[in-house]
Amino acid sequence: MNAPVNIPGATATAQSLGSAAFRERHGLTLAYMAGAMAAGIAGEALLEALVSAGCLASFGSAGLPLARIEAAITRLRASLPGKRLCFNLIHTPDHPAQERSIVELYLREGIETIEASAFMQLSAALVLFRARGAYLDEHGRAHAKQRIIAKVSRREVAQAFLRPAPDALLATLQAEGALNAGEVAAARLLPMADDITVEADSGGHTDRQSLVCAWPSLAALRARVAREFPPAAEVGLGAGGGLGTPAAIAAAFAMGADYVVTGSINQGCIEAGTSDTVKQLLAGAEPSDVAMAPAADMFELGVSVQVLKRGSMFAARANQLGELYRAHRTLRDLPPEECKRLEQQIFHQPLAAVEEQTLAFWQARHPGLAERAAQDPRILMGLVFRWYLGQASRWAINGEPARALDFQIWCGQAMGAFNAWAADTPFADPRRRHAAAIALSLMNEAGAHLDNFMARSVWPPALSAATSTSTSTSASTSTDDVEPDDEEDLQEWLMLQIARELGVDIDQIDPRCSFESYALDSARTLLLLNRMEQRLSMKLSPTLVWNYPTIEKLAARLQQMAEAANVSAEANA
Questions:
Q1: Where is the composition biased (Low complexity) (predicted)?
Q2: Where in the sequence is the domain holding 479, given as residue range(s)?
Q3: Strands 260-262, 236-240: parallel, antiparallel or unpaired by DSSP?
């Protein structure tokens, strides 16, 4: 195991990283979440391991029938009594009735939190989950009964989750009797999400964005929305995609992330609901062993997913299907040699047999779509090609030897980075990759990385003394260099520092708003921390700003620390 660096006075522990508000909101010990992996890959065993360790984990319900999801709820209620459960809700714009039935199951079974993924716009089912049970207290403040963690990569989608549910959807749900007037009134005052995960370059569905570009962009968006709709400032902002090493996780927290979300690396854990063959392939992956391929659920729209290409021909074969779909209108238009190749290399059976199986599947799942496919050869062609894409993920999960070259394994570059980090640890052996142990190791070492960074960033004592002497004259005439004496002085001093960093008047700084709402980047936040250390002559935790996320709360905490330091000094005098 990589041993964390031992730093005198180190304060950034696994438990202190991220937002205290996020941990409290979800009843966690660590600001660490395992994102949903579809078809039950993020299944019961993974949730049991991570939730028991104080982490958050989302059950991968996408692609599973209602009975299977209900069975998972029953098991997890029994194995994790009193714990808050999180289940995934994936957007299915071509089948809204299915999305609605899953939401109604979650509401009926009392699921407290959902991870909403792949949403391009808000749906009635999602609004129903958010608004059901919402209420106004005696002071007129709105409260939600259910929580939503939205996984997004696009600004327009993030903006929808930062704002209240659209009036049109609320009105429709109220008219059909799904919501009452009180729930609608409360929903109009609530952001759609409690937390938003900024998804960068990840396995599965991804826009392949850079986290260091995407996260600050959405943090700035949150601040902008909060000026019009103040509750948006309280929405947590997490980071996901590419997080497979302690250094990457430390970087996410240094940017200001309230929590981190891992994905690909959990699929390689022994608790993941996939085959041992897949886990062995993942354990040998390098960062470059990934490729983009058409997505089964949005094939016709040209949407792609990121998959493992090492040891599998899936990406190449799926992309061939995509090219054929774009070049031809129907299956009957395919050249004979292409039909023969498809039957021999990809489908392993006649195309007519695949057509029959495809229509039978959709007749049971979505009769309306099956009827349209029977009448429109273009639709049928897309569904037949989707047959391969859907089966390929099941072959991988089941570990079917005859289709090993067709395994669809959702995977991002984080898997290869994790393998490089794990090479000198017990985690090099796939049989020792326990999800909870990995989470704790990553978070512990991320804390050590932040401590090391802060230790290197603080000025040496001699330089600090020289700087203090050279500026003593100006200090006596500068209002912001006066030593803060009490909480009110500290609050005003902090307001002035932030106002100067942003180039605005101090009157525009509200001490009750979060630091994130002012779009302070990691560099400015660390600079502010260094200034506080110099003013108070004490070493401060690099996570202090995130654990006390407003000027008001931070000033109160600094005053407590200063008083404690004075008492200690007097006792030692």
A1: 466-479
A2: 458-566
A3: parallel
